[in-house]
Amino acid sequence: MNPAPIKLVFTGPVGSGKTTALHQLSEITPVVTEQAMTVGATVNKTTTTVALDYGEVTLENGEKVLLFGTPGQRYYDYMCKIVAQGATGIMLLLNNDNADPQNDLAYFTELFADHAKRGAMVLGITHTEGARNNPLQRYHAWLSDRGYMLPVFAVDARNRDDVILMVEALAASLEY
Amino acid sequence: MSTHNYYLHGWNENDANVLASFLYLIGDKLPLLGDRTLNPLDASIWLADLDSEEGREFWQEALDQPAAGRRASDAGHFKIALSRQPIATNHLLIRNPLRINGETGVLTVLRKMLDGIAEPNLASAFVTTGERRSLGSLFMQIAHKENVELIFPEQVWVLVDSKNEQCWANRHPRQWIRFFPQLMAIQPATEAVFQSLAVSSNPDCQAYPIDSIKWCLGLFLWKGEPSPQAAQQQTYQLKNWPNFTSLPHHPKHLSLTNHLVRHPRKIEELMEDTELSREFIQNFINACMAIDLLHATPSRALNDKRDKRIGYNPLRALLSRLGVTA
Hints:
The complex is a heterodimer of chains A (176) and B (326).
Chain A: E1 6-11, H1 18-25, E2 34-36, E3 47-49, E4 53-58, E5 64-69, H2 77-84, E6 89-95, H3 101-111, H4 113-117, E7 121-126, H5 137-145, E8 152-154, H6 160-173
Parallel strand pairs in A: 1-5, 1-6, 6-7, 7-8
Antiparallel strand pairs in A: 2-3, 4-5
Chain B: E1 4-9, H1 13-26, E2 32-34, E3 45-49, H2 53-64, E4 78-82, E5 98-101, H3 103-114, E6 125-128, H4 133-143, E7 148-152, E8 156-161, E9 166-169, H5 173-179, E10 185-188, H6 191-196, E11 206-209, H7 211-220, E12 235-236, H8 251-260, E13 265-266, H9 267-274, H10 278-290, H11 314-321
Parallel strand pairs in B: 1-2, 1-3, 3-4, 5-6
Antiparallel strand pairs in B: 7-8, 7-10, 8-9, 9-11, 12-13
Helix pairs in contact in B: 1-4, 7-10
């Protein structure tokens, strides 16, 4: 019997950097499903994921780590839940510039509650440049109030070291 | 606890600032005030630096006074001697010397005295200070909102903009862990220094939270001993995960974090949990303390649903593949 595949899921709302972060890790050219945005396009973001992004890394023992990026629109929830089944960990990216990132946090921790409760989730907060007064504090406070002690980092999804740090934290969280 | 005044006999300004900075850090846990304008007779604690002429004279005079013939003004003063020289140099000056390393030792002796544990008069504490003076004074400079420049080899520098609670550097904090032990100089940073380095327009220069520099100080300053703040606690628990993207760190710091965010832990328990050395763990605790990440009174164990241990962790294999070794 083949062992269960090792899966990492990159999720979060539209414009949080999921596709970019997945690109930092994948050793194959990721399969992406980017389409031109019909609503909400900006100077910096003109396309959005409409199905799943996919990338992979082959380990030294030949096993493959499957990297999935979910679409950010909430009407794709069902797809996110299917992809997350059996996933080793969830990499949740949130855009600090969004109108209500705490609402995004609440939504995605609920969507992936099983992983959050097991500590199999790490948060990367993007677009914190220029933010004053510890921009991560509101995320920590929200999580702590609900009994979660998940890793939260200010990240730049274009920076490979930042994305690797998220994997490192996830690995540590899964160990006692 | 009531506040006590101390008077420094023969201390130079730098060492005085280091002591003041440590006392500032531990706040009301050791309420001591030093005032250069204070009349020595109004101070309840006298600290003599035996490396200075003034300090040696004071100490010799104090020792030469037979107990019965001591001046009335000596009564009630706690006296502590310290020196950076080997004990042998000053053995004639110190009775029953108690050797203590570092400024933390001074604070420990002071604390015991205030708690009434140690001999109240002519207590001999041999304290070594020295290489850590400049880093210690940096804490004080940050607290006083002074801007400073740290200079490292390979033209690496960090400008601490204390007023705006940020620092500028031409290397990412991830690399500071390599440079910090090689610190060459700390000097005041004037507006002209900021302009000459063109911090806001220099593409090699980035701004980072001031916690990055405080974290480094915590990590390196006490060299495996508890910082004055950390020494006040036996059990530690993190308030939340540190933002490691702007903090110099070792991969093992993430494992320590994972333990400390979920459970109150003693150093010994962490050593058992992680198989890391006491020194490594203590430095991490000191760094967390420096950026106020530790609960003052740890109590709560997180009620989560994690497995106690997992065997094979596929993410470790992934990290190895990505070039990260724990």
